[in-house]
Structure prediction request, 624 residues.
Amino acid sequence: MPASAGSDPESAAFDAIEHYTKYEFRIPMRDSVRLFTSVLVPKDTATTYPILLTRTPFGVSPYGVDEQGAFSLQSEALLRAGYIFVRQDVRGRLMSEGTFTHVTPHRPEKPTSADVDEQSDTWDTVEWLLRHVPNHNGRVGLFGISYGGFFTAAGMIGTHPAIRAASPQAPVADLFLDDDWYHGGAFMLAHAFNSVSVYQPQSEPTPPAKVTVPFDYGTEDGYEFYLRAGPIANLTAKLGTGNPTWDELLAHPTYDDFWQSRAIWRHLKDVRCPVLTVGGWFDAEDLMGPFRVHRALKSENPGIATSLVVGPWVHGGWAYTDGRHLGSVDFASDTAAFYREHILLPFFDFHLKVGPDPALPEAYVFETGTNTWRQYSAWPPRTAEPRILYFREAGGLSFEPPDDTDASDSYVSDPAKPVPWVGYTAQTMPEEYMVSDQRFAATRPDVLVYMTEPLEDDLTMAGPVSPKLFVATTGTDSDWIVKLIDVDPPTRSTPAAKSGADAGRDVGPPTVTLAGYQQLVRGEPFRGKFRRSFEQPEPFVPGVVEAVTFTMPDVNHVFRRGHRVMVQVQSTWFPLVDRNPQTFVNIPTAKPEDYRAATQRIMRCRTQPSGVEVSVLPALQDES
Prediction:
């Protein structure tokens, strides 16, 4: 029989064929569309088992009842613990019937059987499983990562009575507001372009291609590829045949009804089961989603048990890695293994079986810098206080506001020579960029650098990061990229280089000197024309100073004694973010002549004190 939850989930390779029998079904929905569903049922019938359901657009390969594939470390841990393991192709994807719609708009009212969405498909699937799969205990759990996290979040709305627990992980909460494809109104170019080929439409159920042919960039240097492509509209032809997903992205460059109708966080009401929301501090795709989902659950569903777990992970890193390293940064323990054994399994075992209560706090978060798990009764912690790090003269950074009556710094931003995303050659978005060394950018004339003196004591930031800028531009539009950076002391020793397998995916340069390392802690773009509204962009008046304020994803980081806090400000971050022409135009249809250099000015005086607001903890201790 499957091993108990108390056994070591990493002890040996797990053979699903030995412990489970695989079945495949086409489950009918209320509108008669059938969804392909793979079910693993424990062979041991001495006890009953809960059902764990994950719904995905990426396929439940391998197909065929005799075929067994590899599982993620997270799924393997759950299989060892003993669950009826159900995976489903969502409608319109691979072997399921119907038409696929990106992040399906939720329908609060469903008067007819034709009114379907992901909530109804989840409900109908659960109903069918309860009636047709033997030896279950009547309890169902939902979980899924990334897009699967979206389907989990959508599926727990108006919770089916049998659903007793749900875990949306890196959930896509709002594709315009800081998940995947748009951040701060700026288009996440490299990630979007590299992703869209996955979602080609299909007219009937179709198995996945036996061989996936990757896009031919013609170079290992993504910076070179995108710069040579020119205006973003030129990339459409490079995709070859029509790509509806790419067309959708370019057709909706503002927060219009298309995006708002797909923002699942707006609909997280009538949730009646405990929820464990999971995210990673260094998730380059869906970092904001877990926070939006958690906040919505708290505000709209008072009384339910909901916990937020955030570790030092890349996108889905808690499921696929040990969570020990990312690039040159060492987190000093197998953080993902800890999560799986001490958080995830106890959560599902308690709510779906008869396991002990893990007594999870509202926030179970990993504190980078000290490499320590922290538990808080609220997130952000109640004792965190907002403080502003002000830009000061001579590149200084201080909690003390400036005294100057008229002071500013400026730089020339040229779209023809954009600031790179990382200091090494990368073809697609490297996950390592989230902690990458920023020394290459600090020396550029189009990047402003502000830095504190060496810290005399540890400085703990726990919560959102909010740039508060007073800016002027000679153009009519501009991006403002702000990066919060932890600068290592010049005396720090450099340990032996990690291998690529140990250091994580897309690790960048093979060796890095840690003395003086400028580790990115948080970085985020903001497209200036959205400074008043994401729905109605407005041009800048050249030379006129305006306030630009935005919120970056949360951090939980300790800047250690002897380190420095650095902030970098720039207007390009390429090709992570598409180039702003710096003229007020519709960027998806911009022409080469629209792209112009502009002088950007940051005020740092008494009446216009630019800076970054952070949430500072007064002491390093857990809240009871």
